[in-house]
Protein 1
Amino acid sequence: MEVKNLKIGMLTGGGDCPGLNAVIRAIVRKSILYNWECIGIENGWKGLVDIFVRPLDINSVSGILQKGGTILGTSRTNPYKLDGGEQKVIENANKIGLDALIAIGGEDTLGVANKLAKKGFPVVGVPKTIDNDLNGTDYTFGFDTAVNIAMDAIDRIHTTAESHHRAMIIEVMGRHAGWIAMHAGIAGGADLILIPEKEIKIDEILKVMDDRKKRGRTFSIIVVSEGAKISESDQKAGQMVLQDQKIDAFGHVRLGGIANLLAEIIEKQTGVETRATILGHIQRGGSPTAYDRVLGTRFGIYAVDMVKNGKFGRMAALKGAEITDIPIDDAVSNLKVVDDDFYNVARTFFR
Ligand code: F6P
């Protein structure tokens, strides 16, 4: 059955992510084949609350595949935290004349999409996050780019660590899940990887460094997720290290700085010169890898066909080598965290 003349909107919400432009481009290019009209909604849900939109044609998505960020802009606006926000989104989508919306985002953006879908709003989701913590999809685009950037940083830090006989701590992103730390740490040959899923005691960290010293290794590479917790004793649970006390519209605190804290503790307790590097937004910026461009393109094309087939309230997902779809509900109800088997792969090298 051929569906004619749809007008579809798309938005990108939450933290930006390499590969977003590949998704936007694919949605527009595929829609053109169906003679559909595409509307870009600017700055995530904010663009539907305030009506900031623009038409997207073949020329508007030309030359964007290799660019980082998102040509539509993004925000962490949560309509459910605004007075009458949900109503505004629904009314404004009608005003614009949208037949369907493709929401490209992580747990927060898709959490909003999920609530709207439950009200009968015609929305499909595309999974995006460098953290790779969305349930129901093997990978999200942006993750591979972030991992490669972090691995490259670890490789560079390795050589200076060795020359100076120092402990080097590299802090990567990952609020609740340690996927970036695990992949970059394993690929970069880290001596220790600290992730939010596995609280670790200071003594265990010092033991690894001591074991290394005993066999003549005078430097250590420690990769830590920003959301990892370190406990100083059996009695005291570890705390996340916050940059400040502010909370965003989705209830998230700003993490960052655990590497500095750890460096201070290690230097004090061992006397080993220790340095911290916080990679921060370098991991999210710049050109996407080939993998992320291809994955984003496949998700975008698939999302258009989800609209065509009326698969609303569902999200495109990668399962093995195939793109399929799952209820958005399944993707946002739980985070996908690092399991014991994978953690044990990394642990083999903690010495
Ligand atoms: O959600 C992706 C993410 O990159 C997290 O890893 C990180 O904690 C957060 O975004 C940082 O957000 P912001 O760019 O708003 O500081």
Note: The mean pLDDT is 95.
Protein 2
Amino acid sequence: MMKIAVAGVGYVGLVSALGFAYHGHTVTAVDLDKYKIAGLSAGVSPIFEPGLEELLQEQLAAGRIQFTTDGASAYSDADAIVIGVGTPENEDGSANLNAVYQVANEIGQNIQKDCLVIVKSTVPVGTNDSVEAIVKEALKNRAEVHVISNPEFLAQGSAVYDTLHGSRIIIGTDSEIAEAKMRTIYADYGQPIVVVSRKSAELVKYASNDFLALKISFVNEIANLCDILGADIEEVTEGMGYDARIGNSFLRAGIGYGGSCFPKDTKALHWLAEDHGFVLRTVEAAIKINEKQKYTLIHKLRKEMPHVAGKKIAVLGLTFKPGTDDLREAPSIPNIKVLQREGAIIQAYDPIAMDAVAAQLGDESMMKGSIEEALVGADACLIFTEWDEIRKISPDTFTRWMASPNVLDGRNCFNKYEMEAAGVVYQSIGRPLARVRQLQ
Ligand code: UDX
């Protein structure tokens, strides 16, 4: 078993640190944020993620993980140091690598023995070369250091599951010594191990995320076409999904992708290509389609209700997807801002993220304690997140509580015929009410 230091306790750093501990390694996780470190040391997770706090407490009790702000000592005697710090988006869409490079420098200064430096943060192609140069430049002691690209594929809401049961482990290195050590670290994971060059590994991550983003934007465009032509996107994707080359997942039409990865990683790869004089037209299209798609509900609403001033609008679901408290690139936020600017009275509900949204928008009064409170007296209801609690709403709840039951569903949560039968004026994404079925 190895002694592993992990830099950064965000999603990637924290969940992979716990994964290493779970598989028997001795882990020290480092972060500059002393409040997060104190909380984690006491068994409190800074993020909401199913199974995370239980795993944290279990590994703390087993003595396999500890948390510290003292990077210097954590890095000094580690067999492997994992870089899992954030790479936020710069103004121009490129990835901001300041934190990665800062940690690389600190690692170099403190290494006292041969070790692996494993880059898990999502970084543009070529960054591992820079990390290697920075670490080697900063070295104060004689040590052999291998820098390995090892991207992480966890999704929010299932981060713990994804880490323990991932589809593959990508190891980017040209060194046989480093490969052998990496295989030891991951020996018990039971996941396919793919060894490729460092640059390829860096690109695997972006290409995978951007492909998935593209898949979503493609389906959303076909859904918009369904709305025009009178076809149903769920029927279309059901038919498509039987072709194994297409696959039946990630074909859910909606109001676009949000979160901390797809919006950032599409822009970062597009920016990187452009920086090399090459335009990635498919990714560019995915970005543009997604930007527009997030306002689909407002466009649909305007047809029913050209002026929203003074109207009560219920908003159900605020996070970028269910199972997380994350609001990064959540379509709900810009939509609420547009409606508020136009004078609408917002009545919002989310099972988890209400305090965070209230703080972000500086308005607590619009947050309601339950679905019913959000719906009461509303002239329209916009659904942004498919939380189970929202999917389970019975159609007559809308007719009972709303002043006029206009429901615009951005995540296709309901059966359109049941909604119509209950008297709801229901619009979703790519699922117009087909007249032929209505008459049967
Ligand atoms: C994603 C990748 O899934 C993960 O492998 C990578 O490491 C990080 O980025 P995440 O952003 O947590 O993970 O969530 P994901 O479940 O992939 O959803 C991203 C967005 O796409 C959400 O806004 C979701 O609502 C949307 N989505 C997803 C769709 O609109 N349709 C789909 O079919 C799937």
Note: The chain has three domains: 3-196, 205-293, 296-427.
Protein 3
Amino acid sequence: MVGTSTNELEVGKDSRYDRKAEVKAFDDTKLGVKGLLDSGIMKIPRMFHSNKLDPPETETSPSDSNLSIPIIDLQDRHVEVVDQIQSASKKWGFFQVINHGIPVGVLDEMISGIRRFHEQDADARKPFYSRDRNKKVRYLSNGTLFTDPAADWRDTIAFYVYPDPPSSEEIPKVCRDIVIEYSKKVRALGFTIFELFSEALGLNPSYLNEMDSAEGQFILGHYYPTCPEPELTMGTSKHSDIDFMTILLQDQIGGLQILHQNQWVDVPPVHGSLVVNIGDLLQLMTNGQFSSVYHRVLSRHVGPRISIASFFVNISSQGKSKVIGPIKELLSEENPPIYREATIKDVMAHYIEKGLDGNSSLEPFKM
Ligand code: OGA
Ligand code: NI
């Protein structure tokens, strides 16, 4: 068409682009990103295009390979473990643990089980696909698909395991036994780590557990399919976690990064280890002593990547009505509260409403 500039064509194309319709059509397939890939696409749909090529100027990338998050051996001398946890929780908000007591065979089988679920036939996956937050087991792509500025290249199966676990029949057969076993073992490790956190804060070891920090647990079994155009989209967009603490199991593919001193630092896969990070609620309760830090997952040509995140927070309606605030024992004249008290529900509502937009969910709760 002579006389029509490329610009006009672009603008014309933009005004006709109906993002909402594209997102809905994708969600209606109930087969996630894996389904898109199975259909043979070579280019990723526009709804996945993110502005990651245009990060805030202060964030540097690629990451400085000299920096690495701490690896803590839980079998070290107790005082040393507490010391390392204190320093890692303050400086990094992230660390890996080894010799944590969960057999490596259990970890490997959990990764395999989650992979089996996502690689089942369409007919087996589809019935689990749901956006109903009341369901204890559900399969979905992008938890906040309809509010996020860009969709991520990732599918997830979610299990709400405590305090009110699903019946075993509700769990897909291909991963049933291992999900039950793994969730119990991670819960026990969660109690141990909350004891160590309590000590690291100078509190009685049982303090955080008595505050019911480990009372609730939900698990996200992520599947990051190979991505044909990884430079255009993210596996998981920049975010912080909304819980008290997260324990993450990742396979050997890599791609997880944390924002540390404005640099994206890789969290390298260490076989047999678990990654632990502080969530927003613990940052609030420790009055900012412990840091909930931003992290993201890059999409890659290689894959699939499997990771399993266990979030410690009680999201039952009763659990969410709990009021949390900076722990009184940690406050003093020199250390006045920087956050106000709020219900878990209020903090979460704000988190869900804002989506994975890269902003702290604690912003409105600052004094
Ligand atoms: C999360 C998360 C990281 C990963 O689920 O909140 O950050 O490696 N996951 O999948
Ligand atoms: Ni996270």
Note: Confidence is low (pLDDT under 50) at residues 1-12.
Protein 4
Amino acid sequence: MKDNIRTNTRKRVLSGIRANSRLHLGNYLGAIKGMLALQENPDFETFYMVADLHSINVPYKPEDLKKNIRHVVLDYLAAGLDPSKSTIFVQSHIPEHIELSYLFATELTVARMLHLPTYKEKIKQYPDDVNMALLYYPVLMASDILIYKANAVPVGDDQLPHLEVTREVARKMNEKYELDFPEPDQFKTEGHYVPSLTGEGKMSKSVEGSYILLSDTQNEIREKLAKVPTDSGRGDKIPETGGVASLFALVELFETIEKKEDYKKQYTSDGIKYSELKSELAEAIYKELGPIQKRRTELEKDEFYVDNVIQESAKKARDIAGQTLKEVKEKMGLL
Ligand code: TRP
């Protein structure tokens, strides 16, 4: 089959986004834009999933999860992920991920997992819900990646410790069972750092008031920008942190770098009118999101098409995942 020939020569890419809430500008600029770039690069075969199994290790509502899984798929498609070029699937539809992860777990120590920074952060955030799945998170992630023998993983720097675990598992499995897992690397996308609207840290799903959703209307974007804390609009020194710095960064991301420099000059001379800056910025953001939202509305009407994409992609993913799992089970003496 044509597809299999390509599979052998092209490098594989796998990435995923959790389905804990609707996607925001941070996901879009940081992850989805990178996924799109790789999808269009003929050297890569791309697999993009909704990491729903990674979404249930913190408190959640089943009815919300169900909706959010669909939302992420729709956002992927609306943003331009193309099922004729990328395999777009839902993690839990490929149960082989879980099975392989258990086999990997035999090669990882509990102590190693306990020391991962992401685990430590999560147990601080949810001290009453320190569950086994949280500790197991990187084991499953290693399986997500290695089950497709992916070489490149477009993710943010916060995921680097998980990639280190993935490489370690690959090495150990290869040594012990004569397997041929690649040791995957982070694919650094041009994904920008998108600052929080609160002026502190980065835009994040878990910080209320910090983000603009991909689905926000022009009005909602305006309202959210209106709440960004500012100052008098004038001073000797350009603020490098806080709300004003976030606004400048967003101007650069959605308008132009020249525009940002202009505002900076105004800041140290006549002063900035934030109402004007914010209204122009809202318009620029909406200009980029509007077409995505339009496609999304179309897709929402076409449930059959979306269901079909999910089913067909799952078949393709399962086929590859099943082959890897079988190979590992054979080598481990289970088959
Ligand atoms: N852990 C990733 C995150 O929180 C999501 C994820 C799960 C993932 N499995 C993956 C990312 C495999 C890349 C590859 O963003």
Note: The radius of gyration is 22 Å.
